[in-house]
Structure formats: C-alpha cells, structure tokens
Design brief:
Blueprint lengths: L6 H5 L7 H22 L9 H11 L5 H18 L6
Length: about 90
C-alpha cells in the first residue's frame, strides 16, 4: 500500500495570500488530484500534463458556475507555476 501524494506539501512553496485563499487552493487541488487519479490513475502532480488540466476544466467542471471555473483555473496556474511549466488554459 502506498501513501497518497501530499498535495499540501507540493504547493507549500507557492501558496500566497490569505489563509482562506490558501485553504481554497488546497481544497481545489485535492479535488483535482482525486478526479485525475480516478480518470488516469495519476495521483502525482509531477506526472500531470496539459491534457489533464484541460479535461478537468472542461469536462469535470462542465456543470459548475463560471466563478467556480475561474477559481479552479487560478489553482491550475498555481500548480503549473510550482511545476515550472507554462499552462494556458
């Protein structure tokens, strides 16, 4: 049995803003992690590609409000910043 990847530790270096904002990013990153893990069996954010982010934003959030999609997009940008990749979703 393997331990799940700690997304909080992964994002700890790039989280800024108020405590509420940081908690929102962490909560959304965990939701993204679970969704991508269920769809592609990739729990480690270092293995995620642009297609995973696009799928999450377009398909998984299909019935969410525009405001929710916006906040998830900010979380995607934060994750990509941590990975050192340029993601334009």
């Amino acid at each position: 049995m393997t331990k799940p990847y700690d997304i909080a530790l992964f994002l700890s270096g790039v989280l800024t803003g108020s405590r509420a904002t940081q908690q929102r990013h962490l909560r959304q990153a965990r939701i993204m992690q679970v969704a991508i893990q269920q769809r592609w069996q990739r729990a480690n954010p270092w293995t995620w590609k642009l297609k995973h982010f696009r799928w999450f934003l377009t398909q998984h959030l299909k019935y969410h409000s525009d405001a929710s999609k916006y906040h998830y997009r900010l979380t995607v940008l934060l994750i990509s910043k941590r990975m050192g990749r340029d993601v334009s979703c």
